[in-house]
Amino acid sequence: MTTVVEIVSALDVQVAAGKVNLQREVTGGYASDLLSCVMAGAKAGNVWVTLQAHLNVIAVAELLDLACVIITEGMHPNEETLAKAEEKGIPTLLTQESTFTIVGKLTQLGIRGSR
Amino acid sequence: MSPVTAALRPMWADLHIHTVLSACAEVEMIPPLIVRRARELGLGVIAITDHNTAENVQAVGEAAAGSGVSVLAGMEVQTREEIHVICLFDTAEQALAWQEVVYAHLPPLKNRAEVFGAQFVVDRLGDFVRENERLLLTSTALGIEQVVEGVRALGGLPIAAHADRPSYSILANLGFIPPGLALAAVELSGRISPEEALQRHPSLAGWPLLISGDAHRLSEMRAATLITWAEPSVRELERALHGQEGRRIKLLP
């Protein structure tokens, strides 16, 4: 199974927080910018791809016990958000690339959508 | 010594109304017709809340002069999280000061009237003054916290719009209301009862609630929120939202 650190290695992403948990295995993937949908659809251990950079992203990732979050399109979380991600140990990866591109690359790594 | 209390009176309110300056609103949403419809509905106070602009607020205020309908100056701003926030002020000047902040955070794009609809600035009679050529139906670069703090700093009240709806709503886009956010209230659409909304969205618990029409046509204006207060003002509204000193709000969808 793919681990978060393999995603970091393979994709054009920066690790903005949560470096301590990069060894975690990724169970699948989910992409949405509506946090209400994520709360209903993403599963524990998933990688979540979104362009939302709000503090609630970290809260939802923690609530669902996600493996990591990838924030796309160059959106940059504020310091409070990154501090929370660091505190909760949630790997938070930033990229200039679009959600579409990132999901394509995750699929190439063998990560499948969660249902 | 008995405390001096202002005379309180109940007043029907619709605090979320668009004009022809909102691209998505019907052409009938001009000042004299909005005021006439408000009178028909028995509304004592309305708020004019166009998308990311306040350029028709003054005109509706002038149209309402002497009508018995009070007009709060407002705007429906779209945050960078794509959440709609109603911003209410006492005066058009305050709303226009807020508009300057909003305009500075809109992308430099032009509206395409043939796609989105036209954005008309009008006078108190509803006559054409000019078109607003900015693309207003889009997100500002302001995050929800920046909007809430910015509106508060200018003496206004920020209210999360149509929170029970699937689009442009704080609950849909952020999953729940961020703890500590200094919203004045949360607006419901009235499509479901407040009780049902609370059941579906537990994070609404404890928030003062309003029901507004979000009218884009005259038939969508509604009298569903009854505010008992001393006068229609932002300060009195905040007191009513917190049930202070006899002021109160009753929702009758």
Rounded to the nearest angstrom, the radius of gyration of chain A is 12 Å
- As laid out across the biggest beta sheet of chain B, the strand order is 9-8-7-4-3-2-1-10-11
The poorly predicted ranges of chain B are: none
CATH superfamily of chain B: Metal-dependent hydrolases
Strand pairing plus helix content of chain A: what structural class? alpha/beta
User: Helix fraction of chain A?
Assistant: 25-40%
Shape of chain B: globular
- Compute the number of strand runs of chain B: 11
Short structural description:
The complex is a heterodimer of chains A (115) and B (253). Chain A has helices at 4-10, 35-41, 55-64, 79-88, 99-108; strands at residues 14-17, 28-31, 46-50, 68-71, 92-94.
How would you portray this structure in words?
The complex is a heterodimer of chains A (115) and B (253). In chain A, 43% of the residues are buried. In chain A, α3 (55-64) packs parallel to α4 (79-88). Chain A is built from five helices and five strands, in the order αββαβαβαβα. The two termini of chain A are 17 Å apart. Chain A has a five-stranded mixed sheet, sandwiched between helices. In chain A, β4 (68-71), α4 and β5 (92-94) form a beta-alpha-beta unit. The mean pLDDT of chain A is 96. Chain A is of the alpha/beta class. Chain A is globular. With 253 residues, chain B is α/β, with parallel strands linked by helices. Chain B has a single domain (3-251), classed as TIM Barrel (Alpha-Beta Barrel). Chain B is built from eight helices and eleven strands. Chain B has helices at residues 31-41, 57-64, 92-104, 113-116, 144-153, 170-174, 194-200, 234-241, and strands spanning 9-17, 43-48, 70-78, 84-89, 120-122, 128-131, 157-160, 185-188, 209-211, 225-229, 248-251. In chain B, the strands form two sheets. Chain B has a nine-stranded mixed sheet, sandwiched between helices. A two-stranded antiparallel sheet of chain B has the order 5-6. The longest helix of chain B has 13 residues, at 92-104. The radius of gyration of chain B is 17 Å and the shape is globular. Chain A binds chain B through residues 33-39, 52, 54-56, 59-60, 78, and chain B through 81-82, 143-144, 171-176, 178.
